[in-house]
Amino acid sequence: MKSGHVDVMLYVGNNFFYTKSLPCTLWFLDKGKPEELKDKVLFIDAQNYHTAIDTTHNEWSPWQLKNLTAIVWLYRGETAKYQELIDDYCSAIREAGDLIGGEAGSALAKVSGIDDLAGAKETLATFISEVKDEAKDAVEAAKRNERKKVRAAFDERIAGLEEQLTIVDEALWLTEKFDAGEYEDVAGLCKVATRSEIEEKNWSLTPGAHVGVPPVEDDGVDFHERMGEIHSELLRLQAESDELMATITRNFEELGL
Fold first, then answer.
1. How far apart are CA 69 and CA 22, in angstroms?
2. Got the DSSP string for 167-193?
3. pLDDT recorded at residue 244
4. Considering the entire predicted model, what is its pTM?
5. pLDDT category, 55, cuts 50, 70, 90?
6. Which residue has the higher pLDDT, 256 or 138?
7. What's the rounded Cα separation, in Å, for the pair 213 and 161?
8. Residue 200 belongs to what H/E stretch?
9. Residue environment code for 187-205, b if the CB has 16+ CB neighbours within 10 A, otherwise e
10. Calpha distance 253→247 (Å, rounded)
11. Cβ(88)–Cβ(69) under 8 Å?
């Protein structure tokens, strides 16, 4: 660390390896770091950013790998690479629109920048919902011996659409954090720490020691009001339980037990 060669520390979560389930930290060293970065290290905590393959294995999708790389680009000031990635996202969404066709496809085909991404997600999500409704009706209308084939065809189509929706989600994940391409620390995800800050943490190079935790989203529920409702519900259930026990006791007494 004191040599200034540590460039990026990336924390990887559980279940990324087939033979080991433990997490790990990837070290990226660079002896050619520019002068303005020699006293700094980029910490990324990606333990909660992955795609689940199954219940015991995770991975990063190609787009997720690009997003993690984009954080490093911004840290290094390589904003042109970030913009190229945004262009790639928009191009992929437009291609999806061409394949879908119709009104939804036409809307997706017009995506050209960050400001269009939220609308693209809404358009695609609505379209997927419509296709699911269409699938349900088609399966019910099909002859019994053809339903499995019809369902399989729609399942394949829906899976492809949901894959496209994932691309939009990844684009939003990146742009909602870094907008048009300026690096900034994101609580729970990434932080650029100076040598003095690292020294204050006893030279710890564990990303979690630096990035902190993400802010808790307000779910709009009043805590005290909700606890009051839960308490009232518990009292009601307790009263019902007492009444039921009394009834059971009387029944046993009537039976002479």
1. 23
2. HHHHHHHHHHHHTTT----BTTTEEEE
3. 87
4. 0.80
5. confident
6. 138
7. 33
8. helix 195-200
9. eebbbbbebeebeeeeebb
10. 10
11. no
